[in-house]
């Protein structure tokens, strides 16, 4: 599995959040597809608000970044798991097309905080 970070920049709240995920190749393909579709539909919004990249953060780096960040809503970086709802949708080919990027990542609403950081 590879580590990916989805970054959400929220200008209204003046904060930036990073959702660190470990994805197998199947989930990686679905997430990248959702990201590409979002960019195609709203390139200006996506380029300024969202990014998706393969990363290699260590727990020490995450702790240091969060220590020096003044976010109040969510930590600057955090380890997350895809919720069971998202995972179940990903397993159902008929539902995958209905799964949008924002459905998964907006303010981490369908992510679950990874407990063993």
What does this structure look like?
The chain has one domain. It is globular, with a radius of gyration of 14 Å. Helix 1 (25-41) packs across helix 2. The mean pLDDT is 84. It is built from six helices and five strands. It has helices spanning 25-41, 43-49, 59-67, 84-91, 93-96, 101-105, and strands spanning 2-10, 15-23, 50-54, 77-82, 111-113. It is α+β, with helices and mostly antiparallel strands and 117 residues long. A five-stranded mixed sheet has the order 3-1-2-4-5.
Helix content: 40-55%
Total number of helices: 6
The structural class is: alpha+beta
Report the order of strands and helices: EEHHEHEHHHE
What overall geometry do the principal axes of the alpha carbons give? globular
Distance between the termini: 17 Å
Radius of gyration, in angstroms, nearest whole number: 14 Å
**pLDDT averaged residue by residue:** 84
How many structural domains are formed by the residues? 1
Question: What summary fits the major beta sheet?
Answer: 5 strands, mixed
Low-confidence stretches: none
Order of strands side by side in the largest beta sheet?
Answer: 3-1-2-4-5
- The beta-strand count equals 5
Q: How much of the sequence is in beta strands?
A: 25-35%
Short recap of the structure:
The protein is of the alpha+beta class and 117 residues long.
Q: Any key phrases for this structure?
A:
117 residues, 27% strand, five-stranded mixed β-sheet
SSE diagram, text form:
Blueprint: E1 2-10, E2 15-23, H1 25-41, H2 43-49, E3 50-54, H3 59-67, E4 77-82, H4 84-91, H5 93-96, H6 101-105, E5 111-113
Parallel strand pairs: 2-4
Antiparallel strand pairs: 1-2, 1-3, 4-5
Helix pairs in contact: 1-2
């Amino acid at each position: 599995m590879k580590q990916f970070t989805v970054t959400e920049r929220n200008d209204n709240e003046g904060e930036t959040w990073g959702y660190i995920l470990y994805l197998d190749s199947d989930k990686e393909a679905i997430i990248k597809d959702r990201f590409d579709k979002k960019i195609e539909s709203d390139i200006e919004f996506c380029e300024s608000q969202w990014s998706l990249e393969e990363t290699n953060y260590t727990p020490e780096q995450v702790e240091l970044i969060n220590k020096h960040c003044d976010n109040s809503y969510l930590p600057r970086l955090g380890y997350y798991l895809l919720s069971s709802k998202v995972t179940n949708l990903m397993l159902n080919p008929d539902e995958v097309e209905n799964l949008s990027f924002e459905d998964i990542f907006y303010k981490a609403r369908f992510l679950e905080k990874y407990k063993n950081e």
